[in-house]
Design a protein that fits this description.
202 residues, 4 strands, two-stranded antiparallel ribbon, two-stranded antiparallel sheet, 6 helices, mainly alpha
Length: 202
Amino acid sequence: MYTQGLDSLGKESLHEGRVDTAALEARFQATIDADDKIEPKDWMPDAYRHTLVRQISQHAHSEIVGMLPEGNWITRAPSLKRKAVLIAKVQDEGGHGMYLYSAAETLGVSRDQLFAQLLSGAAKYSSIFNYPTPTWADAGAIGWLNARDGGEFFVGLRSALVEGTCARVYAGAGIVAGSAPEKEFAETELKFKAMLDALLTP
């Protein structure tokens, strides 16, 4: 529904060739400088539009890929209630992905193109959403479980092992082929901050 109106927005909106590109870029920059909104139908530089599509689609792909490990456990969940919880989580992430694909479509790319990029490996997604979980132990879960199918678990992305007055803190990052080591290291330091603030507070 979002893409149906793009064809009627005109050449400027679809960002087809324009003679006075400099004037359009100046008006675009003025809009940015004024802290005004840039709508999908507005003219924008090709690189800006491409970056928006890449960022939005990466988030969408991450949501879709993120539901795959959870979906794998639906048939193995110990009770109907637990299966329903997993199904709801899968639907939630799938729904988020569909909304994001719709947002990307308003920028002039088709959903088929986005799917093809994901399936071919041309598009990237956040690997933090897709940890392999062949067993319950591989999920890095922290929580409790009782004999009546009760329990509550959280993924231990940030954790600490405390022994007496000594604490060892752990944090990870989603590493992909294009990751910058310095930025990933800075990200883990930021993740450490909340735990260190809690542990070091008198």
